[in-house]
Amino acid sequence: MKNLAKILLSVCILLISLILIMLSAALFDFLPIDWSILLVVLSSITFIIALIAAILMDYSAGDYECRKCGQRFKPTLSAYVWGAHTLTTRYLKCPHCKEKSFCKRRLSE
Description:
Blueprint: H1 2-26, H2 33-59, E1 62-65, E2 72-73, H3 77-82, E3 89-93, E4 100-107
Antiparallel strand pairs: 1-2, 1-4, 3-4
């Protein structure tokens, strides 16, 4: 359950930072130009930091199970970030059988 909370927290962090970017874009015309630019830059930096934090929290939430051989493994961070994915699967190369498949996420206890 602790890892599910990590996943939900990462989603909330991203949503809050996206709302901040949308607010800064909406206020762009109503503020002086230097304040508008500052607000957009700060909200973009906040979004990037939130994105990195969300990726790291989601990455640490569990392992993946290979559909071909059934082995559980932790992918590299780059394979995790760049792998095509759905909510519960990610296209990864299994280090045991060396086959690529949509591996199912298994949350660790």
